[in-house]
Please model this.
Amino acid sequence: MRWYGQDVDPGPVVYIAAEGCAGLYPRIAAWQQARGQASVAGIHFIPEPTNLLDARDVARARRTLALLEEPPALIVWDTMARSMVGGDENAARDVGLAIAAADYLAEPHQAARLFVHHTGKNGEDERGSSALRGAADTLLALKPHEPGLRLTCEKAKDSEPFEPWRLHLAPTA
Model:
């Protein structure tokens, strides 16, 4: 389905909800209601972290992805910090290992990778090592901007950054 007027390349999504699992299913239901969708076909939710720094977790995730009827077009880790438990998000080595594990999981399917990550205390830049920014093809920032939110392109490796988008949250009944 189109997103904010933009065409998308359709394909299955694997969404790893490593934090906020208690609110995951109400958010899914609200999304369905707001868009008049009876199901979320094509989205596979994993309501627990996959530790990208644990070889056993990564091997299990790779086996799980291989079992899908159709390979994922996108794999989402929400959040990065909860997907590298025991690691130091300030250490380039640990961030690099997490990125390498994500690449290992996505490569057989040629899937895009998306990390949800938080800003630091300043509320401006992403938290932790600059290795994440260095490895990213595209880096987006979503921040409060009255009366809603503002999505900006902070990095676009192979294209021109897009103009900021104004977004809003709408309550559902």
